[in-house]
Amino acid sequence: MGSEDKDTSSVVGSDAPKRETWGKSVEFVLSCIGYSVGLGNIWRWPYLCYENGGGAFLIPYWFMVIAIGLPMFYLELVFGQFASLGVTKIWKIAPFWKGIGFAMCIVSALNCIYYNLIVAYTIYFLFKSFAAKLPWADCKNSWNSDMCLPSSANITEFYNPDLFNGYPLCDASKGITIACTPQSVLRSSTLEFWENHVLGLSDGLDNFGTPQLHLVIALFVAWILVAGCLVKGIQSTGKVVYFTATFPYLVLTILLVRGVTLPGATDGLKFLFTPTWSRLAEAKVWSSAASQVFYSLGSGFGGLLTMASYNKFNNNSQRDAVIVGLMDTFTSFYGGLVIFSILGFMAHERGVAVNQVASSGSGLAFIAYPEAVARMPQVPPLWSCLFFFMLMVLGIDSMFTTLETIITAFMDEMPRFRKWKLHMTIGLCVVLFLLGLPMTCNGGQYLLTLLNEYAAGLSLLFISLFEVIVICWVYGKERPGVSRSNRILP
Question: pTM of the full predicted structure?
């Protein structure tokens, strides 16, 4: 790790303080991969794919990657590398638009608050996986109800007419019209573990409850891990990514080999790649593809600008953008193969269609997959440990850059505090930990859902839109410094 002066006087002035730079170019590439490849590649991409026409979703997805994703990714790398500043200071190219940088910091902070709680979930599941028998595999626990279905049971063999007829939802005399079938009434042991034990889920946001100790401890551990990897700034992050950016691929490969050898795996893979061409006429399919590209690559958060600002001035940013963009897309496909092979196995074991065992969002990771590993014939706890450790690594790796974006922005605004960076990092982690505590309550999942839906949705689109307008129109794409003659482009 070293420092060097960058020829950025056209933007930052000749008296700009020296900044750290990445020790090696590969550290920057791995950090970008770790930032872009996250939890969304494992559960969000596969869900959107089968929800929007299976293989037909791949057409708008690839179009969005080429037309929007890679160009935006490249623009942010070039801009951050040229200016060598954080997401707020960098807008001295057009001071009136400095709010774009503050918007990036706000979105990143909100994302940190709820994203690290998802990491905390993976930590708790990982902790619970160190057992002779997985706790969500049966219905013999205090959190299970009478309608619990053990993960090892076949739903069609678990039918008890007397039990269903006595169930409140099946009482026709009360005007209930629900179809009282095993699929509509029974709750899997994994679902009850997730909702009744892990979340302690209340019946609504108005019944918020109190913080749950096991989630508070898991959230605290998650923030300790993130802070520990950031205490030395880019110097420590650049070394950690050698492991965090490569380990998930090893685990995914192991799980893929295991998944495709399970009975019914081919049904899941057929479901993933079988196109429904009529869905291409729906606007929702195209908007889902665009949102996934933004969400996955991380454009608009400010993380790419921040990481690129630590690059050497003549780094080949075009090469890096192509490598990271393609790796992100490849990982989505790779994760899809793993997930859908497992879902095919689950559908085969339960005697239902593939689309009846998958859930959206966090449900796919914390409901479907735990149930799948519990039904594996050999050493289920081992597969569970591998999967949730991988999820934890993916989540923490993405947290590095998101948090570094906020820290770097503050340090660039107030350089005199740069010597107190360690204290600022710890202080920020403490504040964000405290802000995340409400989501450990019984009604916290509803708050997390609100943040997940609105904190980084349309805001990313508008941030990226104004970013393009300011750089290419207000500042001007023909300025000196953003041309080949100044070595900013390869």
Answer: 0.81
